[in-house]
Every structure is written in structure tokens, then in C-alpha cells.
Amino acid sequence: MLFLKDLTIKKIQEGLKNKEFTAFALTKEFFDYIETRDAEVQAYLSLDKDGALAAATAVDVAIAKGEDIGPLAGVPMAIKDNLLVKGLPATAASKMLEKYTAAYDATVIKKLKEAGAIFLGKTNMDEFAMGSSTENSAFKVTKNPHDLERVPGGSSGGSAAAVAAHMAVAALGTDTGGSIRQPASLCGVVGLKPTYGAVSRSGAIAMASSLDQIGPLTKTVEDAAILFNAIKGKDPLDATSVDAEYSDELLHPRLENIKKLRVGLPKEYFIEGIDERTKQEIGAAIEKIKSLGIEVKEISLPNTKHALSCYYIIMPAEVSSNVARFDGIRYGRLDELQEHEPKNLLGIYHAQRGKGFGREVRRRVMLGTYVLSSGYYDAYYAKAQKVRKLIKEDFDNAFKEVDVILTPVAPTTAFKIGEKTSDPLQMYLSDIFTIPLNLAGLPGISIPVRAYEGGELPVGFQLIGKPFREADILGIGQMYERLRNSEPVEL
Amino acid sequence: MTHITEETVEYLAKLSRMDLEGGEKKKIAGDLEEILTHFEELNEVDTTNVEPMTGGTAQRNVFREDDADTRSEMNGSSKDIIDAFPEHARGYLKVPAVFGEQE
């Protein structure tokens, strides 16, 4: 009756209102499909069939009574496992939280529930969001739905794979250095990292607090705009959240205004190390954007090459303090204390943290501890904070000349499972084009260059906007999408 | 070239309250050495008179009225949070002794 792969948020809303299907039947259909498809993709860590079907029934009852339904009513979503949904597991793909059940809803989850969304389950990720391939999960390896021998990217790899494989209409992820945009690019879906402060992080398991943001992964740019609109806003539970003003152009971009935007191509992003295919696809995307009548010109962001070092000092420093809360006591213990293990508090910390954290988490905690330790603080951490300022100033200067910046998302298409696991520095390099935005706090979106079907590996391009100007990047994205799908650009 | 010894790794493990497996120290020392050496390229950036960027945005302090919040409405009930604790009794959290081996 339904074609899961064609569904978008808008189509679900229309279908429910026109009584073409019920939310219950739709949700049931998704679970049936997940049962077979996820056996090979492995995107989900846990499912909540009972909760989802109950929420779907509530939507159907509201429709039957003729009540108004929310803007996300009946939309089946997947949620990254580092976001708290009350009563469901939230493991962050770590053994440390294997037995933890969320005691409250994250603010974004509360907002989505009020809008009527249905949560199918929690998705796999790199442990505590540390990684670029989802291979650092303590529980399973998620496969790229376009090629099961390749990674989906990370750290929101489960969310990206679930949407790409039509096992959810949309998903939430988190992005600290590219963890929404890079898997979106590798899986051929849309991924938005909002401006730092646009979305509350209350109820997100913190990784690096000056960099983390929550955002949507969707099939279309239009859906990304709808979801961003639903989750944004100031929240007393996150002091960094901001009451920014957004006009109705966020949801309804106008071509006449979009055409006036100037797009910059930073020469430092079009460098050696980008594979040939990615280069060609990005070139094609630029041509399409020009054909909308948008001015495109070269710009310079001179400190780009320092972003990776800067990020890999600041992020682990923040990680080492954020994961200090995982002491093997507060969120449940890994297992009963062994006879030979120390019974005092310090001994328990050492034993539980040693067993509970995976290799990459341990590596980053040690790195962060090193750059913050006495004698090295100024040489590393203080230096990185100054370089971070220079990187932000590069963007500030560029945004005097242009309104939006276009770059690749990742230097390569999806790589093979196991290809980069033994060399952390190589793995870190897969985030070089996404990291600078987190350092500068800017919004960015990854958009698939084309609709990828039939075994082709997807490539995404990134649009970077001014702070709180998600409307610009989503607007160009929506026009691009219509052009790509041969739909009328002006609605 | 930054040199990281296994003793440094042991010291970092102690600071971060984390036991490491014996064979792992060498691998971590090698990884840290490679990564820290890569960071040396930052030395070529002139940061004289540059103010450090200490957070995600140039935030001003955020104040609110000094009223007691009803946390249960905002952040879950205290019962749910206490239930997540491995050992608890009558609303109290039970933790191991800080000093020595005694119960």
C-alpha cells in the first residue's frame, strides 16, 4: 500500500489528512521493513515498537476526532542514541551506559513529541560520538546502505543509514566536528548542523560542549527545514541557547531573494587529497547553483589548514572533562564488583572507566588530559583557542563579501569498513571540511549532489551560512533540490 | 618531535582515573606521539595579541530570576534519576567508602 522510499514529512501529513493511510498502519509498515532490512544494515541499537504504535494510535484518534494535528504528526523518526528519550535506553554506543535508561526527555525530544512525531528507535553511533565511521560503537558495525562493505560515516552513522535505507523518514543526530554532515554525505541524505546556540542541547550526552549541536538528517532539504523549525529555540535548560529570530522564509524561501545571495568558494577547500569523483560531483553542483542565477566567486579562508590541529586539541580537552561524570556509579555499573577489585571509590573509578570506555574514547581522554596538564596548557590548549579565534575571523571577513560558502563535505566517498581503524590521524582527516564550522559556531548543511540509486556512492556538498541564517543555506538547498528533481523552482 | 613515553601514558591514565591494559600503553604512546607531532604545525601561526576564543560564541552571561525551579517538570522526577543509580535506599544514594576497604 505504501512506498516507504517515497515518503517525506509533507507526504505523510497529506496522506494522514486525506485518510489514505493511518499513522498506525504506517508505523507498523516501518517496523516490518526494519525487521528484514536492518538485519543487514544494522542501523538501530534498540527499537520501541510498543511506544511507537501507541503514539501512532494517539495521532489516529486525534484525526478521527477532527482535532488539529501537529506539524510532525505520524512522522516515523530515528533518534541517535546519545539523545535522551524518557524510558528508553540511551547508551551512546558505550558499554559504560549499557544498562542506563533515560530519566527524562531531551528538550528536542519534548518538542518533537508535542509536534506529534513517532520514535521508532535509537540508532548506532561511534561511542560517545567520537569517530567518523560508526566503527567505534561498542555494540555493532553499521553498514552503508549503498554498499554494505563500506562505512556509513559517523558519528551519526546509524541515523544517516536508517534514513538512507528508508527505515525512518527522518532522524536526529549530533554534530561536534561533522558528525551529522559527513555521514549524510556518505549515505546520500540531507544533514543540517544548526548555528551554535540555535538548538538546546539539554538531554544530549555532552561530548565537547563548545562545539556540539543537535540537528536533523532527512531525505529532502524541505524536511530538514521543517524539523529544524520544530526543534530550534531558547531553552532555560541550556544556557548557550539563543532566542534568535527566524522569518517565514525559513520554511518558504523566495527565489527572488535567494537569487540575491552571493556564494563563495574558498580556495583552501579545493585542494590535493580530494578524490576525482568528489571533485567532479562538486563541480556539477556549483554549475547547477550558478544556473539558478546566483553569483559565485572565489574567496580565501587562510587559516583553514590549521583547523584540524586546533579542533583535535580543543575537542579532546572538553571530552576529558565531560566524560569525567562516567564514574561507573552514577549511570549504573558495568557489572558486579569482582572479588579482587578494590572496594573504595577511587579504585572503582579506575576499574570501571578502564573497562567501560572503548579505545578511541580512552585515546581522546588521554590526549585531552595531556593538553590541559600543567606545563603543556599554554603550548597546546591556550594556543588552540587563539587559532580558533583566527579561524572564526576568517569566516567573519569572508561574510563581508559573500552570504553563503560552498565546499565539499568530505574528501572522499564512503571508505571500506576497517580501512582507517588502525590509523587515528587518517580517520581524523575525513573531517577537515566540516570541523572549521564547529570551531566558528556556524550553520552548515550537507546536500546530495544527485539522487543516488543503483550502487553509486553518494557525494554531498556543504553550504555554510552566517550565524542564525539557516534560512539562506536551506533556501538555496531547496531551490537546488527542485532544479535537480526537474520540479518548478518557483512555487 | 614530541616524545611520549609509557611512563607519561601511565601518568595520564592516573590523572584521568582509568586503568589501562598492559599492552595498550605502547600503542597509545605511539598514537599520542604522532598526533602531538602533527600539532606542532600550529607553532607557525602568529597569535601575538590574539584574544583566545573560549567558547562556542562570544556569549554574555545569562541571568534568570533567582527562583526555585520545579525540576521535575523540566528535567524528570528525582525518583527516575535515583532509580538509575546502582544502589539506593529510601531516596538516598549508596556509594562505596572513599577511604580504605571498609563497607
From TrEMBL, chain A:
Root EC class: ligase
Name of the protein described by the UniProt record: Glutamyl-tRNA(Gln) amidotransferase subunit A
Q: Which Pfam family is one of those matched by this entry?
A: Amidase
Q: Which HAMAP family match?
A: GatA
Where in the sequence is the signal peptide annotated?
none
Matching PROSITE patterns: AMIDASES (PS00571)
Molecular function (Gene Ontology), one example: glutaminyl-tRNA synthase (glutamine-hydrolyzing) activity
Q: Known catalysed reaction(s)?
A: L-glutamyl-tRNA(Gln) + L-glutamine + ATP + H2O = L-glutaminyl-tRNA(Gln) + L-glutamate + ADP + phosphate + H(+)
Lineage per the UniProt record: Bacteria, Candidatus Wolfeibacteriota
Q: Which family does it belong to?
A: Belongs to the amidase family. GatA subfamily.
- Can you tell me which residues form the catalytic site? 80, 155, 179
Q: What is its EC number?
A: 6.3.5.7
State the protein's purpose: Allows the formation of correctly charged Gln-tRNA(Gln) through the transamidation of misacylated Glu-tRNA(Gln) in organisms which lack glutaminyl-tRNA synthetase. The reaction takes place in the presence of glutamine and ATP through an activated gamma-phospho-Glu-tRNA(Gln).
Can you tell which superkingdom this protein's organism belongs to? Bacteria
UniProtKB/TrEMBL annotation, chain B:
Q: Which residues form the signal peptide?
A: none
Name the catalysed reactions: L-glutamyl-tRNA(Gln) + L-glutamine + ATP + H2O = L-glutaminyl-tRNA(Gln) + L-glutamate + ADP + phosphate + H(+); L-aspartyl-tRNA(Asn) + L-glutamine + ATP + H2O = L-asparaginyl-tRNA(Asn) + L-glutamate + ADP + phosphate + 2 H(+)
Which is an annotated GO molecular function term of this record?
ATP binding
Any one biological process term the GO annotation gives: regulation of translational fidelity
* Keyword field contains Signal: no
Q: Which top-level enzyme class is recorded in the Swiss-Prot or TrEMBL entry?
A: ligase
| UniProt entry tagged with the keyword DNA repair | no
Give the EC number(s) listed in the UniProt record: 6.3.5.-
Could you tell me the keywords of this UniProt record? ATP-binding, Ligase, Nucleotide-binding, Protein biosynthesis
Pfam families for this protein? GatC
Q: How does it assemble?
A: Heterotrimer of A, B and C subunits.
What task does this protein carry out? Allows the formation of correctly charged Asn-tRNA(Asn) or Gln-tRNA(Gln) through the transamidation of misacylated Asp-tRNA(Asn) or Glu-tRNA(Gln) in organisms which lack either or both of asparaginyl-tRNA or glutaminyl-tRNA synthetases. The reaction takes place in the presence of glutamine and ATP through an activated phospho-Asp-tRNA(Asn) or phospho-Glu-tRNA(Gln).
Family per similarity comment? Belongs to the GatC family.
How is this protein named in the record?
A: Aspartyl/glutamyl-tRNA(Asn/Gln) amidotransferase subunit C
Source gene?
gatC
